[in-house]
Input
Amino acid sequence: MTPPDNEKHQVLSHYVKTLFRHAGAKAWISLGLMVFLGLTQGVGLVMIIPFLQLIGLGGTEGGGGLAAQIGNVLGWVGLPLNIPSVLCVYVGIIAAHAIVTRYREVLNARIVNGFTQTLRQRLYQALSRAEWLCFLRSRVSDITHVLTSDLQRVGFATQQLFQLIGTVIIAGVHIAVALIISVPMTLFALVCGGGFLILLRPFNQQAYRTGEGLRGSMNDMFAAVTEHLNGMKIAKSYNLGDPHEQNFRTITNGVTGQMVRFSKANAATRMYYEIGGAVALAVFFFVAMEIVHIPAANLLLIVFLFTRLLPQFSMIQQCVQRITNALPSFEAALEMEKRFEVMKEPLSLGAVNPLRLDREICLFNVSFRYDNSNEIWALREVNVIIPARGMTAIVGPSGAGKSTMADLILGLLSPEQGEVRIDDQPLTGELLHRWRRSVGYVPQDTFLFHDTIRANLLWALPDAKDSDLWTALRLAAVEAFVSRLSEGLDTIVGDRGVRLSGGERQRIALARALLRKPSLLLLDEATSSLDSENECQIQQAINQLHGELTIVVIAHRSSTILRAGRIVVLDKGRIVDEAHGAPS
Output
């Protein structure tokens, strides 16, 4: 459904204000240059009149004394009114116009790309500072689409906005020159051009509708590509390539259809302007020759102006359509940024120092649900104490709330009721940032960059030395493996670590977590997908850390929790049992 005109005008107004706030003085310099370019183009056109008269077209009376006035100006600067002088002035004006045009285009490119970059950085900043729950409620493909395709369309619309402003200024100069020559014929041209803008206004509504449709289709395409790539392995194993291809074909057909519809609207605009312009020019020429009796020199110039002016109206219409077409993308970026800002976490004040865990982590009467409008609770009235420098295991069936509890312990989620305490201090505000600086986290689905082992480790602690890297690798029982690699730490692991085995990926992820020298090491099903040999190696690495830091293990297998000093059993979001395991 197309929004009311006042809503679109508000979005457009906000868009223009945001652009000019970003560009600042650059925007006004660009506008000043556009005015200068319009004036130089107008002066260049006016110089045609004395030239035509000097070569014998139009007589000395043509232009109503305009040629004489130009001659006076040339005489004032010391130039005679002859063909060489007129041609030299004309060439000089065109050269100045070309030089300033080049500078303005570069300036506009800086403004446009800088504006797009600012919007992208603002959105990404809001994204990075939003609560984890906000990510859980968003599709990755939606965020990717807004950050890339949508903001790219906004950048294109910004180019069109500057072109629209420049076109309006140039059209204004053409009108001013035409008024000097013939007021009636200029008014006739304005009526024709204005009439075209009014008659073709419905195409602006169509441009907005196709912009909404195109954005929706592009969003679907991003989602399909992301989901297919994430599920490529299972899609191939199930031989589901054809259904994926068909789904992608359907979506891309929608994208193509929206683009074609917008192109048809643009093409129709040009067609109507060309046909209407030809009719208007014929009428214009007839009136000028048979009724107004304009002198030949003036007639040539005003016809030339008329043929230049009508395309300016066409360009204005097309620029408006292109800007209107991109408004839904600007709205989507604003809406997403606002949504992230609403769920923004408190910022850290100054440097964030690690937090030492001395006594315990306490979950006191904690309840949490992912949707406040839903009565289904992920955790309900959970009370548990995790002692420092011991190993605590959290077990239970799938859907029991284990990962939710892990996210609460990490400080990624905040309880709806109750509170999480670190050494009897609520896990909020500045303590939250210090706590996150003090934890090491190894998830079930290991995330590694398509980069070297060194880069993947340094991601967790950028200022770590090589000796620190090797120490972490040794603690994670993966030092020998990395040493045997021909390129050692500089070995590329592939996308998501595909060039390594599951056990090797998990141990490097464990090394990355240990590199931070955390107070808490949380392993979320970190060995559930490994064979017994790899699980044993990681288990041995964890056992070596026993007593040196606080370890929380989320697991299904009993072998993973043999050394746990405390075992917490969850079911349906509640603690159903607690037991003491091996001595800590």
